[in-house]
Design a protein that fits this description.
2 helices; about 130 residues; binds zinc ion
Length: about 130
């Protein structure tokens, strides 16, 4: 059995199932998001690369009050001049994991480019 879709990092289908990751970022009141399908190796690699930046959230739902950017450690601007990022990870045979990070404007822009995040339509409450 091979995966239906190619891995979004190395671009080929794999033997077995792909795992998934969603990156969501709110920067200057605009939401960006993208879901990636990844092979287990590339997902491991990606999580390792970002392990200093992304804090895994536990069940208590509490997030730390960061005052500096999780990537470059510059002091953060006042809301909304900062980026709040949530990362969800789905792996086979594991419960969903959730990570959190806060970015300055420059690093938030870089995250958008690195993950090719797509701008989300503004939230429209239903009439
Ligand atoms: Zn891959
Ligand atoms: Zn930064």
């Amino acid at each position: 059995m091979v995966s239906v879709y190619p891995c979004d990092v190395h671009g080929a289908r794999i033997r077995g199932a792909l795992e998934g990751l969603r990156v969501s970022l709110v920067l200057k009141s605009v939401s960006y998001s993208r879901r990636l399908r990844l092979c287990p190796t590339d997902l491991d690699e990606l999580l390792k690369t970002h392990s200093q930046e992304w804090l895994e959230l536990t069940d208590d739902g509490l997030v730390p009050e960061y005052t500096v950017c999780c990537s470059c450690e510059k002091p953060l601007g006042k809301f909304p001049n900062r980026g709040d990022a949530y990362v969800y990870v789905w792996r086979r045979r594991s419960p969903q994991q959730e990570f959190y990070a806060v970015y300055c404007i420059g690093c938030g822009d870089r995250l958008i480019r690195d993950f090719r995040l797509e701008e989300q339509p503004p939230y429209q409450p239903r009439a």
